[in-house]
Design goal:
alpha/beta; Rossmann fold; Arc Repressor Mutant, subunit A; six-stranded parallel β-sheet; 11 helices; about 55% helix; Sig_transdc_resp-reg_C-effctor
């Protein structure tokens, strides 16, 4: 591949975006643009048509798993590589289901990210070693995670509940009606076997993405 691809980095942390840009430029990926939010990323994706997107799942305005679908719809053929703090294999599995081609964690070495960019550019699905191991274990033991049976939309809502968002705030952020969010929340309660929204929020705090971030001591 002779031409330099346009790479879009979508992450709400300037330090992460800057570090990714410098790393990519060191490997001769000189055509790099950035977005600090999901909505900005969607606009740049449609306006600039990048070949590769490096995407954080934990953005302040759009659910990361839902964003994968919308990016693909706005720019068919774009290759999306997830770069996230989430090491739970459920998120990797759901990201691939939504159309991502790779998944690397922010605990991986820089060379792992560069290798993943090269592989997804070639059209090869690529997972970092630690994620691939955990995903294999998840497939062997499907009940190892309480999040296993949740859909990408349900995972997005669970994350927002764990972050203290109300149903109205979640509806606004995901651009859905309050009734739709209430219905999905009811389905979530049934799936995780809790009887009240308060108990579901407690479950989200104990088992959802925010717990993973706190236990790691980092932010995504």
């Amino acid at each position: 591949m002779s031409s330099t691809p346009l790479v879009l980095i979508i992450d709400d942390h300037p330090i992460v975006r800057g570090g990714c840009r410098r790393l990519l430029q060191s490997a001769d990926y000189t055509n790099v643009i950035e977005a600090a939010s999901g909505h900005d990323g969607l606009k740049q994706n449609e306006d600039r048509r990048p070949e590769i997107i490096i995407l954080d799942l934990n953005l302040p305005d759009v659910g990361g798993l839902e964003l994968i679908r919308r990016l693909g719809e706005g720019n068919p053929g774009v290759k999306i590589l997830i770069f996230s703090m989430y090491e739970d294999p459920v998120f990797a599995a759901r990201a691939l289901q939504m159309g991502a081609m790779g998944y690397v964690t922010k605990n991986d070495d820089p060379e792992v990210l560069l290798d993943a960019v090269e592989q997804v550019r070639k059209g090869v699905v690529h997972l970092s070693h630690i994620v691939a191991q955990k995903l294999a274990l998840l497939n062997l033991r499907p009940k190892v995670s309480p999040l296993h049976d949740l859909s990408p939309r349900e995972l997005d809502i669970l994350e927002l509940l764990g972050a203290g968002k109300s149903l109205a705030e979640i509806a606004d952020r995901l651009e859905l009606s309050y009734r739709t969010i209430a219905n999905i929340t009811s389905q979530l309660r049934n799936k995780v076997r809790v009887s009240t929204t308060g108990a579901l929020v407690k479950f989200a705090i104990e088992h959802g993405p925010q717990r993973l971030l706190r236990s790691d001591g980092s932010s995504s």
